[in-house]
Amino acid sequence: MVGFNLKIITNRYLFVIMILGIVTFLFQIQFPITNIEISLFLVIALGIILSDYFYIPKPPKGNLLFLSMDTALYIATLFIFGLETTLLTLLVCTIIFSAIRRKVQWWKHIFNFSIYTMMITCTYNIYVKLGGAINGVILDHSFPFLVSLLSYFIVNMVLLIPYFYLASKKQFITVIKSFLNDTLLIYFITLAGSYILITLLQHEHPIFGVFIFTFIIILLSITFRNNFRLYEKISKDKIHREQILDSLPVGVITIDHQTSSIDLNTSAAKLLNLNSNQVMEFLISNPELNHEFWKNVGTRETYQNNKVYYTVGEVKHLLLMSQTKLIDQYEQLIGRIIYFIDITDTDELEKRIYQSEKLALLGQLAAGAAHEIRNPLTVIQGFVSLMNVSLKDHERDKFQLPLLLKEFKRIDTIIDDMLLIAKPGAPIIKEVCLESLVKEILPLFDSSVTNQDIRFSVNMTKAKLMVDPKQMTQVFYNLFRNSSEAIGEKGWIKIYSDVIDGMYQLFIKDNGPGIPKELQKTIFDPFQTTKDNGTGLGLTIVQRIIENHGGKIELQSNEMGTTFMISLPIKE
Fold first, then answer.
1. 246 vs 325 pLDDT, higher one
2. Largest CB tally within 10 Å, which of 165, 295, 433, 479?
3. Dmax over Cα atoms in the chain, in whole Å?
4. Which of 102-106, 189-193, 345-349, 479-483 bottoms out in mean pLDDT, i.e. has the lowest?
5. What mean pLDDT comes out for the span 225-241?
6. pLDDT band at 62 (very low <50, low <70, confident <90, very high)
């Protein structure tokens, strides 16, 4: 509603200006006009049209993008031939412009005509009232001349600034500043041009003077246009190179030794969370935080692929840094370029690959050692079991036979886990509902069996998955056992699920003490455990089984208790 009212106000303002301009023209013009020869009149009109066509471009800034010298012709005509001749010239040129520029809306031609009419009329009246003489020597009437030209500029401001204010919807002060910045230089150039043309028109050959003036404008226009095209080309090339540099996933810091300036591309600014001024301050202050990084940035010696850490807040990045020389077109050293890339994820991937290699080696060792260990272990366990049956109670206690049998069982469990890691076996896929597998396991954790008061809450989405029931049962058993052992005597375990983007996401959450922060990144590594009697292989086995099913398991939350999320694909 506000925008609609503003548009109405703008249209009304344009209408009022156009009416005032037309009325001013009708009151001031009188026919016939005899104080100028028809040939000179036509030459001046032609000069205005050519000056408007061969405008002088400026670098793109503000509202006004070019300089047209037609105003200088109008002002010179005004002071040499008077108001009526100038207004008639304005009318003829407006009609010609309307015929040539048909794409421009008609009201813009009338608005431009009205603005010029009021500015020219006001300038003429002030000049005459201050004692200025038409077709006189301007130097003899310098005060009226300067005051009237100042009024020309002021009227221009008074008439155009409200239009720019209504059209741009900016603050009034901002519009005034923008207008002054864009027009002051043009105003002074127009004054100089009008004074030169007035001098030429007072010569015995005024037509020749107009030709010379117009010819110079055309030459300037062509020269400035060529320069402007070159400026645009250089600007586009510069922007294109900056876009390429900013699009690189590599941080780049450029240090110019001659100007002591520092530039950063977008990747460097984002990764370092700094601007060029802040980088300069850090180089001077040499802070303790990220000291190794700033040491590499500050040195002038070239280097390749230095690994350094850079901390932003609580995030620690591993950077691979290099430095090379900055050479100009004359093969002169003018600075240096530091470029770096964040290899934190790559380093993590290398660690995972190394971990996988360790697991593979562990599997080979387990496969070879299991048979070598199990055979003599079976013999020893058999004889100890025989002794346990044969000996009396006090003798069994004396030789700690129950403890030995318990440890034999523990060793046997470790060997089973190691063999499972070495070769978990290809899943025997069946269509299964995971909820049924979970409910089959829950009786194993009943309070009468475990002597614990643990409440299970199951709220799972019913969905058929293609999995190995035995292996998935082992996954759930291992996770439930870990949670129940972490909880202690009393607590709860929640099992719930969701389906997102074709993946079945199963969450297992408990209210235990949680996993220590220093172990969270290595909980799936073999032999990582917080339990006194744990093997540290349970979660490693779980991860291998889930990955063999094309899914993944991750520690999702550890703020209160522990939450594991298992993602498995839902296949039709």
1. 325
2. 479
3. 147
4. 345-349
5. 81
6. very low
**CB-CB neighbours of 458 under 10 Å:** 13
The two three-digit tokens of residue 435, written as one number: 């909820």
Output the CA torsion sign for 376, 382, 385, 386. Answer: negative
Is 70 exceeded by the pLDDT of residue 67? no
Residues 6+ apart with CB under 8 A from 523: 515, 539, 555
CA angle at residue 258 from 254 to 260, to 5 degrees? 55
The tokens 């793109």 sit on which residue? 60
Phi, psi of 267 (to 5 degrees): -60, -40
> Residue 368 — very low, low, confident or very high, per pLDDT cuts 50/70/90?
low
Q: What is the mean pLDDT of the chain?
A: 80
**Residues of the chain by 3-state class (helix, strand, coil), percent to 5:** 60, 15, 20
Full DSSP string of 221-287: HHHHHHHHHHHHHHHHHHHHHHHHHHHSSSEEEEEETTTTEEEE-HHHHHHHT--HHHHHHHHHH--
Average pLDDT over residues 346-372: 67
Q: Which DSSP category does 334 fall into?
A: E
**Would you call 61 helix, strand, or coil by DSSP?**
coil
pLDDT(292) > 80: yes
Q: What is the pLDDT of residues 133-167, one digit of tens each?
A: 887 666 677 788 888 888 888 888 888 888 888 87
Residue 476: C-alpha distances to residues 121, 412, 495, 534, 539 (Å)? 94, 21, 10, 17, 11
Hey, what are 560's tokens? 């209160």
pLDDT, tens digit, for every residue of 324-350? 988 888 888 888 999 998 888 877 777
Residue 560 and residue 238: Cα distance in Å, rounded? 53
DSSP 204: S
3-state secondary structure of 499: strand
The number of residues making up the chain comes to: 572
Angle at 286 between CA 282 and CA 287, to 5 degrees: 85
Per the CB < 8 A criterion, the answer to whether 484 and 454 are in contact is: yes
* φ and ψ of 499, to 5 deg: -120, 120
Report the alpha-carbon distance of residue 538 to residue 479 in Å, rounded.
Answer: 8
Cα(188)–Cα(174) distance, integer angstroms: 22
Cα dihedral sign for 271, 274, 275, 276? negative
Strands 490-500 and 66-67, sheet pairing: unpaired
AA identity, residue 85: T
Of 17-26, 367-376, 520-529, 538-547, give the lowest mean pLDDT range.
Answer: 367-376
Residue 525 CA to residue 357 CA, distance in Å, equals: 12
Give the model confidence (pLDDT) of 140-149 as tens digits: 777 888 888 8
Please tell me whether residue 310 adopts helix, strand or coil conformation: strand
Judge whether 450 and 485 are in contact, CB under 8 Å: no
Give the Cα separation of 195 and 56 in Å (integer).
19
Helices marked H in 29-141: 38-53, 70-81, 83-100, 106-129
The DSSP secondary structure of 126-155, one letter per residue, reads: HHHHTT--TTS-GGGGHHHHHHHHHHHHHH
Report the predicted TM-score, pTM, of the whole model to 2 decimal places: 0.48
